[in-house]
Design goal:
The structure holds three protein chains of three kinds. Chain A is mainly α. Chain A has twelve helices and no strands. In chain A, about 45% of the residues are buried. Chain B has a domain of about 180 residues: MetI-like (MetI-like fold), CATH 1.10.3720. In chain B, helix 12 runs antiparallel to helix 15. Classes of the chains: A mainly alpha, B mainly alpha, C alpha+beta.
Chain lengths: ~270, ~290, ~375
């Protein structure tokens, strides 16, 4: 192994550490006792980091489990994210298949879809709020999912289009020469060949909508999704271990949800 | 291959218009939740009031007010400058990561493992992730504690406040937006092209700058666009963690919260125009379509 | 004449399973046109990449112009290479592609301009400087790749399958050009191909490779006339092969039992052969005569004509013997007689033209019959 490989390994480890550092602290702080986490914690010593066990308990988890709003928000989040995931993979697949070969206005359409991401979140959020106000529409979770889908589709589209097998059309042609009906060609040739990208698009939709605050905040009324609920709570209340416990719980729930989703998706199509 | 049917794929033999039919669902969504809202912002920005009955009194005063206001240059500078620096930091951290993943991690399983690891934090709530930086970068966090005990500084640095907060939180939040497209672009480079440069007497740094980096530019540009517009539209980080650093995004949110709709719309329009301008300039440099077809 | 390249026991593994090069040892003289021929997967591309330095070897030695190349990066080697995929830089036009190597060498602008012009003229692409690779035809791309590798004037030019992705006419044209360019510049050329005709007609020296080992090195006519192994014989030119056992000797003349009956041979490698040895009995198709002419020779056999192939300047007949073996016979078109399918004819050839090959191939542990009837 050359020095280059070693440097690469160290760098990758550092970046992962950089990304995971707050995660470790989140988990550690979720087991902290007391209602309030004040900074500095137990004075300016290293002790706090080195010998945590004293005063650690599960009270933060108990208090978050008694928060009804948390569960409302969780419900909303799951609904919005799963719906966004489904919408994203459906729209990405149809659009990518349509844009695969040169058609009139392909570039324009491609950029139009990319625009869904380019328009700054706060501007789009405001625009949707205007639209609802002008037409007298009540905001709903469905609307949130639709707004988030506009934002997630470009990511899925870029991934799927850049990963298309250049020979996809050739395989389809071969199958149709062998007397497969168009529906069968799609089911037996096209879909199995792009299934990885289809599932990826769904996962992208789920992940991006799960953490989105800016657009959701503008369109949503009431408790909102987990991301907006916690953001609002944290911006008015002191930081307590309860929220770190919430963060840990959310991560576990989302992880399980995502795993089940990916599993069902891959089973469904096979 | 000059067989026309081969080029068309199966869809076209069902119907000439099937492609356009396939585009329909996506287009309807764009129309309802992108194009109409966008045109509403732009049109309302030219009115004095926006009541439940609709916009009233055409005027240019919203724009005139903004461009003659004393804070205009500060706001624009904050908006542009902070986003741009955040992009640069994300690039400097993220591009080597993508590069090493593609060219130095040889086993596909290891690569898949690392990419999955990168995705997990997405599952954790964004606000909590930001707050969890406090024990590290907060007033009494590890960094300040170490620097003070080493005698480098007397007073704790306000790392998680003001501009530096943006420059820490934004790159951290949007790092993946840079890694992902760069990674995609790098995997699309034919290894033989790099080999060709090597045998044509290019030393390692020339191979990198003349070939590898150059060919991954569409991905890098895409990453810049991702991070830039994400930070441009983010009003929460400036409001919540940066102690109200005035950016265009935050101004939009503030005026909207106070129901000054037309002015918020004008600021949003300016924001959209900035995003499009940056996009246009970057597209002049590199064709991001190369990333996808 | 000095040595441009020397290798000693080069070994290359891909992972733990695939042995791409198994102790490869050979020399190449300066100024040689050296052609490595072998089926795909025989390790010829691997070898070229190792010489160029874009691939590492596991053990052994590699010398270029007498210098050990261990840990010498590609840009410090006096070598350039034309890759099989051409690998033109997609973001540079023809001029910049060809100028790339010169710029890396730090030449000044006017020199670069002059040399690129010359190189493009040499490969017949003058005037296309401004074109982008995507706007070129396959043959033009190949020429750009050639010019690009050639222009830095390395002492060794490596050409990996340069003839394999273009049509027949372009192949012929490029072969002529390569030979002429080689004569003009006088550098060492190392070319790989999986097509035997290219090897025979281009090379000063041919090396036949088979899954990581060298089967034979020699002048094209040497390899053609005296193949060292059955594998080399099969790979270079058409040949009829029969599994045989030496029965007895009558002075120079050797009697053998073969699948198609008793045959005689007058082998050059007499000293190494003795009665009872299993060998391959080989005869080139153009040495076999048909009908009246056949009666003059020591080896005679009756066979039925089952098919024929017309190749323009010669005709190839396929006969079937009583023992169900096939014999190919090639006849110059102007000497073709009136033969009818299904009829039986007398075939004959001189014992002097027959070859007795002892080794199946250089890979250990293979039975001679396996190799003869392998494919």
């Amino acid at each position: 192994m050359g020095w280059g490989d070693r440097l690469a390994k160290v760098y990758i480890a550092l970046i992962i550490l950089f990304i995971y550092l707050p995660v470790f602290f989140m988990i550690a702080l979720s087991f902290k006792s007391g209602a309030k986490i004040s900074f500095p914690i137990e004075g300016l010593t290293w002790d706090w980091y080195i010998k945590p066990p004293t005063g650690y308990e599960y009270s933060a988890y108990i208090s978050i489990l008694h928060d009804n709003n948390f569960f409302t928000a969780l419900n909303n989040s799951l609904f919005v994210s799963i719906l966004t995931a489904l919408l994203t993979c459906l729209l990405v697949t149809t659009t990518a298949l349509a844009l695969r070969k040169r058609i009139v206005g392909r570039d324009l359409l491609f950029y139009l879809f990319i625009l869904g991401f380019i328009v700054p979140g706060v501007a789009l959020g405001l625009g949707v709020a205007f639209m609802f106000r002008l037409f007298g529409i009540e905001s709903s979770l469905l609307a949130v999912a639709a707004v988030l889908t506009v934002y997630t589709v470009p990511f899925g589209l870029i991934l799927m289009m850049s990963r298309f097998d250049p020979d996809l059309a050739t395989y389809e042609y071969a199958a149709s020469v062998l007397k497969a009906s168009p529906l069968n060609v799609f089911r037996r040739i096209t879909l199995p060949l792009i299934i990885f990208e289809v599932i990826s698009a769904a996962i992208i939709g789920f992940l991006l909508s799960w953490g989105e605050v800016i657009r959701t905040q503008f369109v949503m009324k009431g408790t909102g999704t987990l991301a907006t609920y916690i953001k609002n709570e944290l911006s008015i209340n002191p930081i307590t271990p309860k929220w770190f416990a919430a963060g840990t719980l959310i991560a576990i729930i989302a992880f399980i949800g995502l795993a089940i989703f990916a599993y069902i998706m891959s089973r469904r199509v096979r | 291959m000059s067989i026309p049917q081969l080029k068309m794929g199966v869809l076209d033999r069902v119907s000439k218009y099937s492609r356009y039919l396939l585009l329909l669902p996506g287009f309807v969504l764009l129309l309802l939740f992108l194009l109409i809202p966008l045109s509403m912002i732009v049109s309302i920005s030219f009115f004095e009031r926006f009541t439940l009955a609709g916009p009233e009194n055409f005027t240019l005063s919203n724009y005139v007010t903004f461009f003659t206001s004393p804070q205009m240059s500060t706001i624009l500078l904050n908006t542009f400058g902070m986003s741009l620096i955040a992009c640069l930091i994300a690039f400097l951290l993220g591009y080597p990561m993508a590069y090493f993943l593609v060219f130095r991690v040889k086993s596909t399983r290891a690569r898949f493992f690392v990419v999955s690891l990168l995705l997990v934090p997405f599952l954790i709530d964004w606000s909590i992730r930001v707050v969890a930086w406090l024990p590290i970068l907060g007033e009494s966090g590890i960094v300040n504690y170490s620097l003070m005990s080493l005698g480098v500084i007397k007073e704790p640095l306000e790392l998680l406040f003001g501009r530096s907060a943006l420059l820490i939180i934004w790159p951290q939040t949007y790092l993946l937006w840079m890694i992902f497209p760069s990674y995609l672009a790098l995997t699309r480079i034919d290894p033989d092209i790099i080999n060709a440069a090597k045998v044509l007497k290019a030393p390692p740094h020339r191979v990198f700058f003349d070939i590898t980096f150059r060919l991954s530019l569409p991905g890098v540009v895409m990453g810049f666009i991702f991070v830039f517009v994400s930070t441009l539209g983010d009003y929460i980080t400036p409001a919540l963690w940066a102690g109200g650093i005035q950016t265009l995004g935050l101004s939009v949110a503030n005026y909207a919260a106070n129901f000054v709709w037309p002015y918020a719309a004008a600021l949003s329009t300016i924001l959209v125009v900035i995003a499009l301008l940056v996009l246009y300039v970057l597209l002049k440099v590199v064709d991001i379509k190369k990333l996808v077809y | 004449m000095g040595k441009a390249l020397e290798t000693r026991d080069l070994v290359k593994w891909y992972g733990k399973e695939v042995l791409a090069l198994n102790k490869v040892t050979f020399d190449i003289d300066s100024g040689d046109f050296f052609v490595i021929v072998g089926p795909s997967g025989c390790g010829k591309s691997t070898l070229l990449k190792i010489i160029a330095g874009i691939l590492d070897y596991d053990s052994g030695k590699l010398y270029i112009n007498g210098m050990d190349m261990k840990n010498v990066p590609p840009y410090k080697r006096d070598v350039s290479m034309m890759l099989e995929t051409y690998a033109l830089f997609p973001h540079m036009n023809v001029f910049d592609n060809v100028a790339f190597g010169l710029r890396m060498l730090g030449k000044n602008k006017s020199e670069i301009e002059k040399e690129v012009k010359e190189a493009l003229k040499l490969v017949g692409l003058a005037g296309l400087e401004k074109r982008m690779p995507l706007e070129l035809s396959g043959g033009q791309r190949q020429r750009v790749a050639l010019a690009r590798a050639l222009v830095i004037n390395p002492s060794i030019l490596l050409l990996d399958e340069p003839l394999s992705h273009v049509d027949y006419r372009l192949q012929r044209k490029l072969m002529e050009d390569l030979k002429e360019i080689h004569r003009k510049v006088g550098n060492t050329f190392i070319l790989t191909t999986h097509v035997q005709e290219h090897a025979l007609s281009l090379a000063d020296t041919v090396m036949v490779m088979n899954t990581g080992v060298i089967e034979q090195i020699g002048k094209p006519e040497e390899v053609y006339n005296n193949p060292a192994t059955v594998f080399a014989a099969r790979f270079v030119g058409e040949i009829n092969l029969f599994s045989a056992q030496i029965k007895s000797w009558d002075g120079e003349l050797c009697y053998l039992n073969t699948d198609i009956g008793e045959l005689k041979a007058n082998p050059k490698n007499k000293n190494t052969l003795s009665s009872g040895d299993k060998v391959a009995y080989a005869i080139r198709p153009e040495r076999v005569k048909i009908g009246e002419e056949a009666k003059l020779y020591e080896n005679k056999i009756e066979a039925k004509l089952v098919s024929y192939y017309y190749f323009g300047h010669y005709m190839e007949y396929v006969f079937q013997t009583g023992g169900n073996a096939k014999i190919k016979v090639s006849v110059p078109t102007e000497k073709v007689g009136n033969l009818t399918l299904g009829s039986t004819y007398l075939l004959g050839w001189s014992a002097k033209d027959a070859l007795l090959i002892e080794k199946p191939c250089m890979i250990e542990g293979l039975d001679i019959e396996e190799v003869i009837y392998g494919k």
